[in-house]
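From the pipeline queue, job 12 of 40. The input is one protein chain; the requested action is below.

Action: predict structure.
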Amino acid sequence: MSALRWSLALLMLIGLGSAASGAEVPIPPSPTQWATDTGGFLKPQTVTALDARLRVYQTDTGHQVLVYVAPTTGETPTEDWTVRAFRSWKVGRKGMDDGLILFVFPTDHKVRIEVGYGLEQTVPDATAARIIRDTITPKLRAGQPDEAVVAGVDGILSTIGGETPSQVATNAPEESDAGSSPVWVALGILLAILIAVGVIVLVGRIKSPGVYIGGSSSGGGWGGLALLGAGFVGGGMTGGFSGGGGFSGGGGATGSW
């Protein structure tokens, strides 16, 4: 009887373990960035560079292209999970559904390009499959996750079109170059300009209270400066994506490595 009890207990533990390992992974809330890595699969600087690049791409073209890395979809088939995530996050513009997400699931060794209705003619299934097969998975098999995802984004954006050469940054910025980065130089120059404008405005207010730069003579006078500064504060998508799109008929492709 004792042996029977131990056998039953062992079977129950095995069953619980199997159920836990295959449990369905719920769809998370909408991402707040264009590039998201929830499992540390990519280097932080790679995620930062991709996020900035895709943000600028959406600003210039209107197309919302995301990168989303999560460990696994659990027992849910990859295609089902990604379609549900795409719909839940409402990727793409309302009425156009011109969004696309490059999904990577390292634990599952799966890659998925999910394409919204509005881009299915531009990025057909065969093209998505080719990008995965010829560009992404070979680098993943070679142990080069950052290069794989960046190359995948290169292929996707070049297929959709609209990215200017100056926006293409295939390599993540080196930390040692941060001090001499053109971005930092540009920000330094802009800061100096803002300070100079502030001084001019202050002097103007002292000498002639009715004259304001960038504002109305009947208002606070700092509206123009405040509006200019606001552009540097609200760069992220702190509330998640709410473009109103999200319709995908399963267009795209899935690959393994």
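Job complete. The beta strands are 35-37, 64-69, 99-105, 110-115, 252-256.
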